[in-house]
TrEMBL record, chains A, B:
Xylose isomerase-like TIM barrel domain mapped to chain residues: 29-260
Keyword Isomerase: yes
One annotated GO molecular function: isomerase activity
Short name of one Pfam family: AP_endonuc_2
Top-level taxon of the source organism: Bacteria
Keyword Transcription regulation included in the entry's annotation: no
This protein's UniProt keywords: Isomerase
The protein, known as: Sugar phosphate isomerase/epimerase
SUPFAM superfamilies for the chain: Xylose isomerase-like
Organism name: Lentzea tibetensis
Length: 272, 272
C-alpha cells in the first residue's frame, strides 16, 4: 500500500542499556533503525558533552530528552538551581528541547515544605529554560519514590504546577499507571506532554525497587490504553523505552535493543 | 489537675507482633494498659474464633477492627463474596464493627476492569454488612501494591466508592502519606473514617516491600500533621499501630508492645 513513510517514533533511552557508552548506544540505534535517543547526563559527561553531541548529530539522531534536572528539595537551593541551569545548557548543546525533571525527595519529615521548595525552584528556573528553548518536563514519580527521589507524585499535581509555571510534564508509564485519574489527567495534559516514556511494572519487585521495571508487554500495565490516551491528547513526539532492569543491564546491548524494537512495534506503535 | 480520665485510644494491631498468638497479644495489651486490639483473621482462626472472642472479651478489650476482607478482583466472584460474608460473620463474633477491606490486585492487564469488579463486589456486600452492623472499611493501598494486592490506590477513590455504596474508609498512614490531596480528602472523609492506622515508611525499602514499615516517628511521615487532620475530621475511634517489620517480628513481643506504647504517647497522642 502506498502512502507516506511513517517516522519511527521509537526513542531508545540510554538507561535501558545503562553500561553502554554514548557511542555504543548511538551505533545501536543506527544498526536497528532507531531515529531518536534519550540521553542521561552522567554517561554524557563521561563520554564528553561536545563529543556526545557530535556522535549523535553525525548519526542523524533526534535527542528526545535529557535526564535529568530537578533535586530541588535539599537545603542548598542556590547550588541546586545552578546545577539545573547547567543541565539546561547541556540540553542546548545536545540539541534537545526537553529536560526531564526528577524533583527530589523529603529530606526531613516536611513533605509539604519539600513540595513548596520544588514549586519555588521551578518558578525560578522557567525563564532561564525558556530563553534556552528548553521545556522543563516535570515527571510525576511513583509514590514508592516519594521519600527519597520525587515528591511530585501524580500527574494531577504535575499539571497544577505545569499550568501555573508554564512547563511540560512527563508521562512515564511505570510512574503513573496505577492512578485512578490517569485517563482524565492525560486528556487535561494535552500539549503539555513533553515526553512519553514506556516500560512495564516488574512484579514481584526486585530487592532494589529502582529496578522494578521490565520491557513493555511483560507486566500488568495496559500500555495500549495509555498510549491511545496519550495519542488522543495530541502527543506527536518520540516515545522513549526506558527500562531499569538488572537482567537487561547484564545482557548484550545489541540484543536488548533488538528486543526493545520488537516490543515497541508490537505493544506501543499500534496504539499511536 | 482534675478532669475526666482520658480513654487510651491506642489499639495494638496484632500484625505488629505477628508471631504471637491471640492470647499473647491480649495478655500484652493488658500488661501495658492497652484497651483495644486490631485482629487478623488468620491468627484468630489458628487460635479459634470463639476462643479468641472469649479471651478478648474476658480481658475487656475493644476490638478496633478485623483484617481483612476484600480480594474481589479474581475470576471466582461468588467464592470471594462468600469469603467476605464469612469475614463479616467473624466481625460479629469478635465484637467489632469494622472490617478492613484490601480489595485485590490486577490479575491481568485490565486495571479498569479489576476496579469495576471491586465496586460491584462492594455493592453486593453492603446489605449483608449493614444487617450485621459491620462497616466495610475500604483501605486505599499504596500504589506499590496496585499490581498484586490493592487496586484501590487513593483516599479520593475510596471515598468515591464509600459515598456511592455507603461504606467507611481506612486511613493508613503508610498507604496515603505521599498523597498531594491528603489533607482535603481526610477532611472530605469526615465520619466515614472507620479506622486510622499508623506506622512509618521504612527507607530504603527492605527486600520484601510488604515489610517496608517502621515504628511511628522513625520515618519521613508527618504523623503529627496527619493525626491532627484525622482528629479535625471528627474521628474519635481507636488508633491502631500496625507495623510489618522483620526486626520487630523477631523481637520479644513484650518489648515491642512497650515501644509501641511509648511511640503512641510521644508521636500520635498529642495530636489527637
Amino acid at each position: 500500500m502506498a502512502g507516506p513513510v511513517p517516522v519511527n517514533r521509537l526513542s531508545l533511552n540510554q538507561a535501558t542499556i545503562k553500561h553502554a557508552t554514548v557511542q555504543t548506544a548511538v551505533d545501536g540505534c543506527a544498526r536497528h533503525g532507531i531515529e531518536s535517543i534519550g540521553l542521561w547526563r552522567e554517561p554524557v559527561r563521561e563520554f564528553g558533552l561536545e563529543r556526545s553531541a557530535k556522535v549523535v548529530r553525525d548519526a542523524g539522531l533526534r535527542v528526545s530528552s535529557l535526564c535529568r534536572g530537578g533535586f530541588l528539595t535539599g537545603p542548598d537551593v542556590a547550588a541546586a538551581l545552578d546545577e539545573n541551569r547547567r543541565a539546561i545548557d547541556e540540553c542546548v548543546a545536545l540539541g534537545t528541547d526537553c529536560l526531564v525533571m526528577v524533583v527530589g525527595g523529603v529530606p526531613d519529615r516536611d513533605l509539604v515544605g519539600a513540595r513548596q521548595r520544588v514549586a519555588d525552584g521551578i518558578e525560578q528556573l522557567v525563564p532561564y529554560a525558556k530563553q534556552a528553548g528548553v521545556t522543563l518536563a516535570l515527571e510525576p514519580m511513583h509514590p514508592i519514590f516519594c521519600a527519597d527521589r520525587g515528591v511530585l507524585s501524580t500527574l494531577r499535581q504535575a499539571l497544577d504546577w505545569a499550568e501555573r509555571y508554564d512547563t511540560g510534564v512527563v508521562v512515564d508509564a511505570v510512574h503513573v499507571w496505577w492512578d485512578p485519574e490517569l485517563d482524565e489527567q492525560i486528556r487535561r495534559a494535552g500539549s503539555r506532554i513533553a515526553s512519553y516514556q514506556v516500560c512495564d511494572w516488574l512484579s514481584p519487585l526486585p530487592e532494589d525497587v529502582l529496578l522494578g521495571r521490565t520491557l513493555p508487554g511483560s507486566g500488568p500495565i495496559d500500555l495500549d490504553r495509555m498510549t491511545r490516551h496519550v495519542a488522543k491528547a495530541g502527543y506527536r513526539g518520540d516515545v522513549e523505552v526506558e527500562v531499569f532492569n538488572a537482567e537487561l543491564w547484564a545482557a548484550d546491548p545489541d540484543e536488548v535493543i533488538a528486543e526493545v524494537v520488537r516490543r515497541f512495534h508490537s505493544v506501543v506503535e499500534p496504539a499511536l
